[in-house]
UniProtKB/TrEMBL annotation:
This is DUF4442 domain-containing protein. InterPro entries: DUF4442, HotDog_dom_sf. Pfam families: DUF4442. It comes from Pontibacter populi. Gene3D superfamilies: Hotdog Thioesterase (3.10.129.10). It comes from the Bacteria.
Length: 144
């Protein structure tokens, strides 16, 4: 993580579970990611939330033939409770992401898929919900 995502490393993000269907990422409340209101800074929450969706995209496009590029093209979020302690983001859209990756490989057309991730605190209360729209596009074999 240090080499590829140094800010995620510094914020102490952890991918705690990864299957074809879902990914779970945690972020702790600590000095480097706090805000003046004694909670986790929203940008750090966004980073953890994005990783929970992005790792599924990466998993379903890793070593794809043809190569599939991925890019976040939109994000929106709702914050429902102050984020303190360890926050766990879970995205359960892995199968939909896999289908989108397969579709772009077959057609060569770009596809946008919106993945939702929910952030929960240690008491099981929802603190945030993020929706990331990923653009997946198979690269032409002539360009790959």
């Amino acid at each position: 993580m240090l080499a590829k995502l140094p800010m995620a490393y510094m914020a102490d993000l952890r991918v705690t579970a990864l299957t074809d269907e879902r990914a779970t990422v945690t972020i702790p409340y600590k000095y480097l990611n706090k805000n003046p209101f004694n909670s986790i800074y929203f940008a750090c929450l966004s980073m953890a939330a994005e990783l929970s969706t992005g790792v599924l995209c990466m998993m379903h496009t890793y070593k794809a033939d043809p190569v599939v590029s991925m890019l976040v093209v939109h994000m929106d979020a709702d914050f429902t409770k102050k984020a303190v302690g360890k926050i766990t983001f879970m995205c359960e859209d892995g199968r939909r992401i896999q289908q989108a990756a397969e579709q772009t490989k077959l057609t060569g057309e770009g596809i946008a898929i919106t993945a939702t991730t929910i952030g929960m605190d240690e008491q099981g209360d929802q603190v945030a919900e993020f929706r990331f729209t990923w653009s997946l596009k198979a690269k032409s074999k002539l360009l790959a």
